[in-house]
Specification:
This protein is of the alpha/beta class and about 400 residues long. Helix content is about 40%, strand content about 10%. Helix 7 links the parallel strand 5 and strand 6. The termini are far apart. It holds the Pfam family Aminotran_1_2.
């Protein structure tokens, strides 16, 4: 009999973390590795946020807090959701976790039983299915298509829902594609959900503020108020505020669900870092002036990536509406061979060979549930991105 839990055998380690670790290992060996696999901005945390953290330390705000967050941060979250999304919540309806991942995980742990299904559009963030499995549920993957810019249609959602469906996980702008749903596109999905009152909605709005061109962010309970009582609206400060390492995520929803999530957190990690919480208060309440200039840099990088990747024979790369990823298809490269003799049988072979032969780290599409693709994070310097894209071009052109 194995000593380890059978539940653990249902899941796999995060492929994005694995690829980042592999790239770091090669870099430590002296290789000139350019990493396009990590999903975090290359900007520093804003100065006002850093100052708020220092002030909290100096004021002795370094002790335990309530298990799911200080009331000041919960109020800042309520204010943000009303100001930006037109959603009214009280502090009793808010949970603060150690990063966005924990809030999603807590909700799944608090609600899923054996046999419960969770509909997840693919491509998806790598952790969604495994968190569902860890919580005892069954992920039901609904594949999108490149032709629809990787957006789920109402018909696809309808087909995925069964009497056993408990949650629908919705992420816009998306990791890994950057695809953002318009109000009308999201309304088509919420109309389906209205016909299935047993299905709850878990939104992952982490990339809300990273929206480009004419795209306007919206979230399900905002688009369809009738879904308010069965929606958990999740967000955090990691991406737009360049606070990935501070580990603050949050969720707002019905009080009974928030109370259940609090119970899970109280018996696992307990409270998020107290200093990080005070920094997050300043992030949400303080100046937002840095977001637009940062987004201008992301748009420039996005456009560079889309243009250079689409110039490669065998690659098709849609132009995303937000986040800091592109998700090109390599359908035209499958079956070819690298100069080192590696046969490109799938996107994992492509990503592995690219790292080994051109020193560029990306994440293969199978990790996100849809192949043959790979994910590029353009949250890096313009110079590093251009060099990496030049290497990708050379690699693809060398295939025979």
């Amino acid at each position: 009999m194995s000593f380890l839990s059978k539940t653990l055998s249902r899941v796999k380690p995060s492929p994005t973390i694995a690829m980042t670790a592999k790239a770091a290992e090669l870099k430590a060996q002296g290789r000139d590795i350019i990493g396009l696999s990590a999903g975090e901005p290359d900007f520093d945390t804003p100065e006002n946020v850093r100052d708020a953290a220092k002030a909290a330390i100096d004021a002795g705000k370094t002790r335990y807090t309530a298990p799911d967050g200080i009331v000041e941060l919960k109020q800042a979250i309520c204010d943000k959701l009303l100001r930006d999304n037109g959603l009214a919540y009280t502090t009793k309806q808010v949970s603060v976790g150690t990063g966005g991942k924990q809030t999603l995980y807590n909700a799944l742990m608090a609600t899923l039983n054996a046999g419960d299904e969770v509909v997840i559009p693919a491509p998806y963030w790598v952790s969604y299915p495994d968190m569902v499995l860890l919580a005892g549920g069954t992920p039901v993957v609904a594949e999108t298509t490149l032709e629809k810019n990787f957006k789920l249609t109402a018909e696809q959602l309808e087909a995925a829902i069964t009497p056993s469906t408990k949650w629908f996980i919705f992420n816009s702008p998306s990791n890994p594609t950057g695809a953002g749903y318009s109000w009308d596109e999201l309304k088509a999905l919420t109309d389906v959900l209205l016909r299935h009152p047993h299905v709850w909605v878990m939104t992952d709005d982490m990339y809300e503020l990273l929206a480009y061109d004419d795209f306007k962010f919206c979230t399900p309970a905002q688009v369809e108020p009738q879904l308010y009582d069965r929606t958990l609206t999740c967000n955090g400060v990691s991406k737009a505020y360049a606070m990935t390492g501070w580990r603050i995520g949050y969720a707002a929803g019905p009080e009974p669900l928030i109370a259940a999530m609090r119970k899970v957190q109280s018996q696992s990690t307990s409270n998020p870092c107290s200093v990080s919480q005070w920094a997050a208060v300043e992030a949400l309440n303080g100046t937002q002036d840095f977001i637009a200039p940062n987004n201008e840099k992301f748009v420039r990088r996005r456009d560079m990536a889309v243009e250079m990747l689409n110039a490669i024979d065998g690659i098709t790369c849609p132009k995303p509406e937000g986040a800091f990823y592109v998700y090109p298809s390599i359908a035209g490269l499958i079956g070819k061979t690298t100069p080192a003799g590696t046969h490109i049988t799938d996107d994992e072979a492509f990503a592995t060979a690219l790292l080994e032969e051109q020193d560029v780290a990306v994440v293969f599409g199978a990790a996100f549930g849809l192949s043959p693709n790979f994910r590029v994070s353009y949250a890096t310097s313009d110079e590093a991105l251009k060099t990496a894209l030049t290497r990708i071009t050379a690699f693809c052109e060398s295939l025979r």
